[in-house]
Design goal:
Blueprint (H helix, E strand, L loop, with lengths): L1 E7 L5 E6 L3 H10 L5 E13 L5 E20 L4 E8 L11 E6 L5 E5 L4 H11 L7 E7 L2 E7 L4 E8 L11 H21 L7 E6 L3 H15 L3 H5 L4 E5 L8 H5 L2 H6 L4 H18 L4 E3 L1 H9 L3 E7 L8 H16 L3 E5 L4 H7 L4 E5 L8 H9 L1
Parallel strand pairs: 8-11, 11-12, 14-15
Antiparallel strand pairs: 1-2, 2-7, 3-4, 3-7, 4-5, 5-6, 8-9, 9-10, 13-16, 14-16
Helix pairs in contact: 1-2
């Protein structure tokens, strides 16, 4: 993402001009755009013109519109962001107040205006425009007959391919059908890796499975690569790393990312930091529960005592349509930073973010133990 210009006054009102350069930037834009903002971008509009004879002709024209945002839709698979709203600036093709849906496109700039820019929005722009934040990890999570090809970036886990092949069981004295099915499955996985993994960007490819499937697959893949003289795989052999997972399903990626061998290879990526922080929280919850709080009321109470060492919060909470609710979370984040606490904003598209979302979306590791809240506070927290 490129920040082309920024015009925000001392009260936090104003706009920024941004240009998305890759698919992940659309996720950042989705986290920036909120209902009530103004969005200006080029778009294509179908226009009908009537001639002197009364005949009507329709044509498509490219024009620039400014809309007041009313609805936002993000397609996680295609990484497409659609923003719907009413036109608020005079335009020769579109009436004032007419509805239009803007599709934000790669390499086309857009202007986003807000009545109040907060610290979380500024952090999101900084993250989107920082080239060092882009992760460089691909993962193949597999078991016999099932494989998921995932790309793990700083902000999201993208499922690029799911491969399912029925493999016949081994029978006494008859292994040929089983071996044929396994070979067919391995070939499809190899093709998917070559199609979806860009080795110019990716620094590490994880092959994860229960048992010996990962080792058998790696051996088969590089044997085939030598037979077929596949330079792409042979030149990047050092980037492949085999690790254990409990299954071939996508959720097993969480335990894969917490593996010590993996964290050493991807020490600087944001995804790895999130997984480590969540593991630390669960260990604290098990060993010293008075130093691990979750739920908004409990975490706010801990913050009042200036006890929060690390705040874990999902970006989903900042997409609340209710402005006071969003401001409440922003105040919590700012307050923790002021008290020299660490804030980790989890992406809801990562497996770790999904897991934190099941724990109300907000949790904290404390500097010192705080006794549990009284029943009255606890019940009101449950209502939250």
């Amino acid at each position: 993402m490129k920040l082309l210009s920024r015009d925000i006054d001392k009260n936090g009102e104003g706009g920024v001009v941004l240009m998305p350069e890759e698919a992940e930037d659309m996720w950042h834009a989705y986290n920036l755009v909120a209902v009530g903002d103004t969005l200006r971008s080029t778009t294509i509009r179908k226009v009908q013109t009537e001639s002197a004879t009364g005949s009507v002709a329709s044509s498509k024209v490219r024009t620039t519109l400014t809309i007041a945002v009313e609805a936002i839709d993000f397609d996680t698979q295609a990484c497409v962001l659609r923003v719907k709203g009413r036109n608020i600036q005079e335009n020769q093709y579109v009436k004032m107040g007419a509805y239009h849906t803007l599709d934000l496109e790669l390499n086309r700039k857009f202007t986003l205006g807000k009545h109040e820019w907060d610290s979380v929005a500024f952090d999101r722009i900084e993250l989107a425009c920082d080239p060092t934040q882009h992760a460089d990890l691909a993962a193949v999570v597999m078991q016999e007959g099932l494989a998921h090809i995932c790309l793990v970036t700083a902000s999201m886990t993208l499922l690029r391919a799911k491969i399912e092949v029925a493999i016949p069981r081994k029978r006494k004295g008859q292994c040929a059908q089983h071996d044929k099915g396994l070979t067919r499955f391995y070939d499809q996985v190899i093709q998917a890796i070559q199609r979806h993994v860009n080795f110019d960007v990716v620094k590490c490819v994880l092959i994860a499975s229960p048992g010996f499937v990962k080792d058998q697959f790696s051996e088969y893949m590089f044997t085939q690569a030598q037979k077929m003289d596949n330079k792409l795989l042979l030149e990047n052999k050092s980037k492949f790393l085999s690790v254990h997972s409990s299954s071939g399903h996508k959720h097993a990626l969480k335990e894969v990312l917490s593996d010590t061998a993996v964290t050493a290879r991807m020490a600087d990526t944001k995804a790895s930091g999130e997984v480590r922080a969540l593991d630390d929280f669960y260990q604290m919850l098990q060993n010293d529960p008075n130093r691990a709080f979750y739920g908004l009321r409990h975490v706010e109470y801990a913050n009042e005592q200036q006890a929060i060492e690390t705040l874990l919060i999902t970006d989903e909470l900042f997409r609340a349509c209710d402005v006071p609710t969003r401001q409440r979370y922003v105040r919590l984040v700012d307050s923790v930073k002021e008290c020299n606490g660490e804030v980790k904003i989890f992406s809801s598209l990562h497996v770790s973010g999904e897991q934190l979302g099941q724990l109300t979306g907000v949790a904290a590791i404390l500097r010192f133990p705080i006794p549990e809240l009284e029943d009255g506070d606890s019940s009101s927290s449950d209502e939250e």
